[in-house]
Amino acid sequence: MLRIADTRTGHLAEIPAAPRRLLRSCVHLPALGEGADTGTGIGPVHLRVPLIGDVLARTAELNGLQVVTVLTTPELTPDRSRALDRVMAVLGIHPPVVVGAHRPDGALGGPADVHVVASGTDPDDLTDGARIEVAQVATAPPAEGVPDPGHLLDPGLPDTTEPETADPLAVRLLLLGRPYATPVTVTGPALAEARRTLRDWRRSVADWAQQPSRPIPTDLLRQSHTALTENLDVAAVLALLAEVAERPDVPPGAKFETFAHLDRVLGLDLARDVGHQRRP
Question: What share of the chain is helix, strand, coil (3-state, %, to 5)?
C-alpha cells in the first residue's frame, strides 16, 4: 500500500485505491522562465517536480504496482523541449509517457490518482486524485573556489577541467535530501558535500560487492519501505543508508544488498564502481 499526504485535505490518501494495481500519475511542470536559466528557461524547481514524480513511480513499482506517468508542460519551443529532455535524462528521471498533454486523461487511461505540482501553482482541472505539492528551490551564489551550483543545472555545459563537479546525480541527491514539502537551497558547498557522499557510497558499495552476499536485515527493509510508502520520505531513507554504512553489526554483503535495493528508488547509480575498484 502506498499512501501520500494529500495537500488539499491534509490527510494520508491511499493511491491507487485498492484493489487496483495501476497508478496513474500526472506531473505538472510549472511555467518556465522565473528563477530559471536565461537560455533554457529551466530552473531547479522545474527539476524537483518531475524528480518527485519519478521517485513516486519508482516507489510504486518497487511495491508491485504498474505506473503510467504523464508530464504536462507549458508551451515549449523546440530548444526548450530538447533541454528539458536532456536535463531529465541526466538526472535519471524516467521519461513520462507523454510530454505536453494538457488534458492527460486519455494518455493516462482514466482520471489521475495523484497530481504532482509545484507549491504556489494551481494547474487547471485538478478535480480528481490526490495532490502532492513540491516546495520551491532557491540557488545561492557559490563560495570562492566552489563550483557554481547553477552549472550542474545545465548539463549541456560540462566542466571538463573537474569531471567530478559535473556529476548531475549530485543535484538529484541534494534535492532528495529534504522532504519534498520543504524548500531547498542549492549552494556550492551543499553540492560539494553531495558529491563527496556519492563518491564515498559508490566506493563502499564496490568494496562490499566483493564480499559474500547476505540478505537485507528485516528491520532495515521494514524501516525503509515504511518511510517510502508513507508519504515518500526519501530523506529518511538516505539517513538510514548513512547509518547502515557505519554499522559494524551489518555484514558487508548485507550492506551491498541494502544499498542496491534502495537505489532502485533513489536512482543514484550507487553500484557504478562495482568491478572498478583500485587494486592495492
Answer: 40, 15, 45
Work out the average pLDDT over 193-207.
96
Pairwise CA distance, residues 115 & 263, whole Å: 24
Q: What is the pTM of this model?
A: 0.88
Cell, residue 194: 553531495
Task: Give mean pLDDT, residues 165-190.
Answer: 89
Helix H or strand E segment including 242:
helix 234-246
Contact at 8 Å (CB) between 224 and 239? no
pLDDT of residue 39: 54
Q: Are 16 and 24 in contact (CB under 8 A)?
A: yes
The span from the CA of 46 to the CA of 42, in Å, is: 6
Mean pLDDT of 91-106: 81
Long-range CB pairs of 150-154 (<8 Å, 24+ gap) are 150/37, 150/186, 152/191, 153/37, 153/42, 153/43, 153/44, 153/47, 153/87, 153/186, 154/37, 154/39, 154/40
φ, ψ dihedrals at 271, nearest 5°: -95, 15
Omega cis (within 30) before 123: no
Residues ≥6 apart with Cβ < 8 Å to 174: 184, 186, 190, 191, 194
At 21, the amino acid letter reads R
User: Could you tell me how far CA 25 lies from the centroid of its own chain?
Assistant: 15
- Residue 201, Cβ density class (10 Å: 0-12 exposed, 13-18 middle, ≥19 buried): buried
**Residue 26: pLDDT above 80?**
yes
Beta pairing partners, 184: 137
Give the CA radius of gyration of the chain.
19
